[in-house]
Design a protein that fits this description.
β4 and β5 form a beta hairpin. The chain is built from one helix and 18 strands. By secondary structure, it is mainly beta. Strands 2, 4, 5, 7, 8 and 9 form a six-stranded mixed β-sheet that branches. Strands 12, 13, 16, 17 and 18 form a five-stranded antiparallel β-sheet that branches. The protein has a four-stranded antiparallel β-sheet with strand order 10-11-15-14, with no helix packed on it. The protein is elongated, with a radius of gyration of 27 Å.
Length: 209
C-alpha cells in the first residue's frame, strides 16, 4: 500500500513540475509606415516590413481599415524579397490603419493620418471664402472652420463659420465651403479642426488680409 502511495505521489509531482512546452505563437511580420501624416490627394505612403525568418518568396497580405469601417479588409498581396523585406506604396484618402499578415500571423497596426486640403481666398475687403477638399463621401458639412490671424508666434481666431456642401455628391473629390465676413488685418489662415475621425486638423496656406 505504501509503495502504491509513493508511486502516485511521484506521478503527481512529475505532472506539476514537468517542463513547459517550448512551442510559441507564430511570429508576426514587422510593419512600418512613412510618412505618417500626408495631405489628401497629394502624397503617397510606403508600407514596409520584414517577414519572420527573413525568407524571400513569402506571401504577405496588406490589410486596410479606413475611418468609418469596422473591420480590416485585404487590399493587396506582395511577396517578400531578399532578407524577407516587403514594400507596398499607396495613397490613402482617409485616416487609415494598416496591418501585414503572413503565414497566419498579423502585425501590429500602423496608422496614417490625412489632412484635408484647405484653401483660403480673399473675395473682397472683409470677405473670404474657404474651400475644403476631401474624398467622397466624407463631406465636412456642419463642421467648423476658423479664420485666424497671426499675432506674434501664435494664431488667434477672429471668426468662426460652419462648412456646407459645395460640390456634386457624386464627385470623387468633394468640397465643403464657407464664406466669412469680418474686418481684420495682417496675415491670415483658415484652420479646420480634426473631423469625424477621418481627417486630422489642417490649415490653409497664409494670405494677406
Amino acid at each position: 500500500m505504501r509503495s502504491r502511495t509513493i508511486a502516485i505521489l511521484a506521478a503527481v509531482v512529475g505532472v506539476l513540475f514537468a517542463p513547459l512546452s517550448s512551442a510559441s505563437p507564430t511570429a508576426a511580420p514587422s510593419l512600418t509606415l512613412t510618412p505618417r501624416t500626408i495631405e489628401f490627394g497629394k502624397e503617397t505612403v510606403m508600407l514596409s516590413g520584414v517577414v519572420p525568418g527573413k525568407q524571400p518568396g513569402q506571401v504577405v497580405s496588406i490589410l486596410s481599415q479606413a475611418c468609418l469601417l469596422t473591420e480590416p479588409a485585404e487590399i493587396a498581396t506582395v511577396t517578400s524579397r531578399a532578407g524577407g523585406v516587403f514594400r507596398y506604396h499607396l495613397q490613402p484618402t482617409l485616416n487609415t490603419s494598416f496591418r501585414a499578415r503572413s503565414n497566419g500571423a498579423t502585425s501590429v497596426a500602423a496608422k496614417v493620418s490625412v489632412r484635408s486640403v484647405v484653401q483660403l481666398r480673399r473675395l473682397a475687403a472683409g470677405r473670404y471664402r474657404v474651400l475644403v477638399s476631401t474624398t467622397n463621401p466624407v463631406f465636412l458639412d456642419g463642421k467648423p472652420v476658423l479664420l485666424q490671424r497671426a499675432v506674434g508666434a501664435k494664431w488667434v481666431t477672429v471668426k468662426q463659420a460652419t462648412l456646407t456642401k459645395a460640390s456634386n455628391e457624386t464627385a470623387v473629390t468633394v468640397v465643403s465651403a464657407a464664406t466669412i465676413r469680418v474686418k481684420t488685418s495682417g496675415t491670415l489662415r483658415a484652420m479646420v479642426p480634426a473631423a469625424r475621425g477621418c481627417y486630422v486638423a489642417s490649415a490653409s496656406p497664409i494670405i494677406a488680409a
